[in-house]
Amino acid sequence: MEAGGEEDVTPLTPFSRMANIIDFKLARLKDSLGDAKLPPLEETEEIERLARKWKSAVQDIMENLLAKSQERGHCQQGGMGELLRTLGIAQEQVGYDPESEDFIRSP
Question: Per residue in 67-78, pLDDT tens?
Fold first, then answer.
């Protein structure tokens, strides 16, 4: 709260709204996984395949989000690295290489 009892209400940017939505969904996912049982080691191939598929989908979504935000003038500089930082997404989690400024694609 600011002096005088007024709350500081800062409007959310499209990126901060997206970050809030992602945070909410991650919290729900963590809660739902709290009681989950891990499968036997021999059954993890399917999980690894789905994880690669998820990462590929996230990479495509992030590229589309960056392109749309640049079209609309929301992302002036910094590119993908800045977008990921703004959204609070760890670059290594989605396979982004800041040196090459590109995603590392899984086979």
Answer: 988 888 776 677
